[in-house]
Amino acid sequence: MTSTAPRSAGPAPAPGRHVFILSAPSGAGKTTLLRAALERLTDLCYSVSYTTRPPRTGEVAGRDYLFISPAEFEEGIRTDRWAEWAQVHGNYYGTSAEVLAHALAEGRDILLDIDVQGARQICKRFPQSVTIFIMPPSPEILEARLRSRGTDAAESIAVRLRNARAEMAQKDLYRHVIVNDDLPTAVRELLAIIGSYRK
What's the rounded Cα separation, in Å, for the pair 129 and 118? Predict the structure, then answer.
């Protein structure tokens, strides 16, 4: 994995507004939790990440990710297009600096779905970001979830598991940790955390 720190600090959130960061290892159920939160918190702005990986079955461009070519992504690196970016599992992922700046200028709370590398970069720009890490119940369950998706080769799953162990080892960097053992319970915990800051 490689990443680069942002060059500029960017705009600060308006008073009372928040940048929420959701991170998790691949297969921990982050996307399901994210969608559940957005369905209930309709005024929360969500920044759809850009990626160079191909869409998975069932993913919708513009909802799950914005899919672009490696050449376009690398041009964005050269032109400071990304508020944060990382190369993960051989693919680029990034957050649009323009989308983030626009949401904050409007005084809206914003939710980011980014990995540990990206979270570090965003927290440099916005130290008061609310960081939330989603944990699987166990490494064994995580591996079973990855294999049951049927979207990755054995070699890719092995890489994802190695990266997952490295990410989970950094969970203490986050303000909040949710263990996604029971989905309804995890959704309630996520909504409660977000709600506690928005009161």
Answer: 12
Contacts of 174 (CB under 8 A, 6+ apart): 23, 119, 131, 132, 133
Which is it for the CA torsion 143, 147, 149, 152, positive or negative? positive
Distant-in-sequence, close-in-space partners of 99: CB < 8 Å, separation ≥ 6? 47, 48
Phi, psi of 119, deg, nearest 5: -60, -40
Output the DSSP codes for 89-105: TTEEEEEEHHHHHHHHH
For the chain, give every domain's residue range.
Answer: 15-198
Round to whole Å and give the CA distance between 155 and 27.
Answer: 16
Helices (H), the chain: 30-40, 70-78, 97-105, 116-125, 139-149, 154-168, 183-198
For domain 15-198, the CATH architecture is 3-Layer(aba) Sandwich (3.40)
Burial class (CB in 10 A: 0-12, 13-18, 19+), 58: exposed
Q: Among 22, 2, 16, which Cα is nearest to 122's?
A: 22
Q: Which two tokens stand for residue 101?
A: 């700046």
Other C-beta atoms closer than 10 Å to the C-beta of 176 total 18
User: Which tens digit of pLDDT belongs to each residue from 82-139?
Assistant: 999 998 878 999 999 999 989 988 989 999 999 998 999 999 989 999 999 999 888 7
The verdict on pTM exceeding 0.90 is no
